[in-house]
Every structure is written in C-alpha cells, then in structure tokens.
C-alpha cells in the first residue's frame, strides 16, 4: 500500500480533461463483444474496472485491441455465441463488470466463475441472482450471496417482467442484457429512474428498446434474441470524475478551472445541480452531444457554499458523488443533511461510515445516521487535516479525501492511493496539472 499526503496548494486553474465515462466504457466493450463485426471505441476509460471487463470478454471469445492512436476495437462474437471461459473471470474491484456480465452469462449456454478483490467479495449479488434465477440461470454463490460465485447460464432462458426492488442501473442492465439472448420480451419496471446508458447504447447497436411510462414508472423492454450491429463509439468524459475537480475548484480559494467534455446525462448530473443549489459557481459552456450523450465544458470558480437539505429523490443521479459532496458540505456554511442513502453502505466500502470517519479525522463535524450524514460546515475555513484516512479499497473515498486535503491546513494522508486506478488513473497527475 502506498500512502500519500495530499497537501494544500494554490488555486486550481487552466483547463483539464477527465477520462472517459466508466459506465459507458463498460457497456461499449460488452456490446461490442455481442455485435458481429468490429466496434471502435474512442476515449475508453483505461481504469482497472473497465480493463477487467475487457479481459473477461476476451475470455469469452471477443478480441479487444488498442491502436497506436489510443482507439480501441472489439471484434464481437455475436449474441448467443459467447464462448465457455477457461479460467475464472477476475472482476477485481468492479461491481458493474460483475453484475452486467452475470446477466450476459445467464442466458448463454456457458458456465463462468466470478472472483474479485476483498471489497467486491463483500458486495451483495443476490440482487441480480434473484431475477436471473427466475430466467433459468443457476448460481452457486459464497455464503451471503457474494463472490466468489459460479453462474451457470440457461439457453434458451425464460423472459420475464421484473420490477426493480432497489434503484439500481446495474440490476436493470443485468436483466436487460440477459434478455438480449432470451426468446420473447423481457421487461424491467423502474419505479425510480437510474442511469440510462444501457438503453441509449443498445439502440446505437441496432437493438429495439421500448420505454413506456405507466403510472410514473418506466417499463423498459427488449425482445430477444437480438442481432447487434457494430458501432463507432465516442465516450464522453466521466461526470463522476469531473465531480472531484468541480468540488476542489469550488472550495480552494482563487480557483477558476475549465473541465472539458463532461457528460451531463440527466440521470448522472445530480452532483452539479446540488453544488449549484449550495452556491457553487458552475457554468456549462458549449453544450453539445457526444456519442448520443449530452456534454458540456464546465467552468468552475471558487465560491462560498451554503449547507442544504439534499432531496433524497436526486440520489440515483449522483449515487457515486456523495463522498465528494460530503467534502463540499464540510466546507460550507451551516448544516448539510442527506437521507435515503442506504445504498451507499453496499458500494466498494460502506461510504457513509467511511466518509464520516475520514472527515472526523480531518477535523470536520459529522454525525452519521442510518441513511445519511449530517455535516456542519466550516464556513469556508480550511479543515485542520492531520490524521491518516482509511480508504477501505474504495477509489471514491481516496479521491474525495484527496480533495479535502487540498483545502486543509496540514494536508490529508490517504492510507493507499492504489484504489484510484479503478476509475481515474491520472487523477493525481491532473491535480498537479491544475494546481501547478
Ligand atoms: O450501471 C452502472 O454503470 C453503475 C451503476 C451504479 O451502481 P448501482 O446500479 O448498484 O446503483 C453506480 O454506483 C456504479 O458506479 C455504476
Ligand atoms: C460503485 C462504483 O462502481 P462499481 O459498482 O462498478 O464497483 C463506483 O464507481 O463508485
């Protein structure tokens, strides 16, 4: 483990470009593997999670290549013809890889073992095992419904209508991906909207996806088995990565930073809406479309923030951004109250307790509640900093507390910087670049 102290620096200025969106990168590789022919992907995130997806797809017959100019290509095997993988599929730290690939395997006549790191091996897989079992797949999980586990697919699988019991794009996508090779119509009912990259990108690969709104709920259907045509994809910048820099520029005095090419899909942009409600100075420049997704350049200037009560309904559109929002709240004037965040307890770490502990060690006033945090901010005063923060193999805890370090008196030490490569390999280099 490599510990690192993120120390206060000058303002963040200039222009930076964050890497490609993690959710879109996973899906572009998976759908490329299911198409017959060659898909090209520009701007793929080369984070550990996405690379784990790529390796697993290669084990199942796809060919993933990187050209000299950085463009990736995927030679797909076609829906229904994924190959039996020889060894276990090592999912590393990635919940998205695991749950979506379990969905794919579930409707193919193959058996796959899924393994992962200590963090991933604690995360609940019952949420995908339940619906995929109803479609005919069999599972042998570890006690508690966790990894390591074996998925035995069923071909042909049985179509179903599944109402999501938790707001989860991963569960939605797992069922829809199983539906691609299932004869008949598979429908997911989504009471609360979650990120819709699966629906958008399947259409780009030639799949008919219907979305009906009934009594305020979305009914999302695919009718299998489908044929998928290859596609040229451009991956927009990841709003979840941009969020660290939006908060850093908001809380470090004198900052004026342009973050280029940030994805602003309405199912993902909650963090920017909440920061603006708190008084952040964020402008969207040159709004446009990249790869079927809304994108803009974000101009972020330092601004005094005020605590708010965050509407729990916005949570799904910023589910990964709460750790860094908590850092913004710790620097705001007054109290920030969050609720309805039970899902944060089953991410790479228990993000409510990990962030409460990390912020307290750094001198912030935090009260942990069952479903959220109550944070009383410092009114813009730097946090004292000091102790070493435990990141629990969680990239978002590491990067959030790195941002806190930039606005602290003495810096914040992260126990391990390795998890950062999961989603944002050049994070530290970009901090250096923006604060040079
Ligand atoms: O579908 C996806 O790409 C993701 C969905 C979210 O997880 P849940 O669906 O479990 O909320 C999110 O936390 C994760 O980083 C990526
Ligand atoms: C929750 C996350 O990812 P995953 O579920 O794919 O591990 C994340 O990136 O914050």
Automatic annotation (TrEMBL):
It is an enzyme of class 2 (transferase). Its EC number is 2.5.1.19. It catalyses: 3-phosphoshikimate + phosphoenolpyruvate = 5-O-(1-carboxyvinyl)-3-phosphoshikimate + phosphate. The active site is at residue 320. One of its GO terms (molecular function) is 3-phosphoshikimate 1-carboxyvinyltransferase activity. 3-phosphoshikimate binds at residues 22-23, 27, 168, 170, 320, 347. Residues 8-428 form the Enolpyruvate transferase domain. The keyword Cytoplasm applies. Pfam families: EPSP_synthase. It is found in: Cytoplasm. GO terms for biological process: amino acid biosynthetic process; aromatic amino acid family biosynthetic process; chorismate biosynthetic process. One of its GO terms (cellular component) is cytoplasm. Pathway: Metabolic intermediate biosynthesis; chorismate biosynthesis; chorismate from D-erythrose 4-phosphate and phosphoenolpyruvate: step 6/7. Keywords: Amino-acid biosynthesis, Aromatic amino acid biosynthesis, Cytoplasm, Transferase. Phosphoenolpyruvate binds at residues 22, 95, 123, 170, 351, 396. It comes from the Bacteria. Belongs to the EPSP synthase family. Monomer. HAMAP family: EPSP_synth. Catalyzes the transfer of the enolpyruvyl moiety of phosphoenolpyruvate (PEP) to the 5-hydroxyl of shikimate-3-phosphate (S3P) to produce enolpyruvyl shikimate-3-phosphate and inorganic phosphate. This is 3-phosphoshikimate 1-carboxyvinyltransferase. It comes from Qipengyuania nanhaisediminis. The gene is aroA.
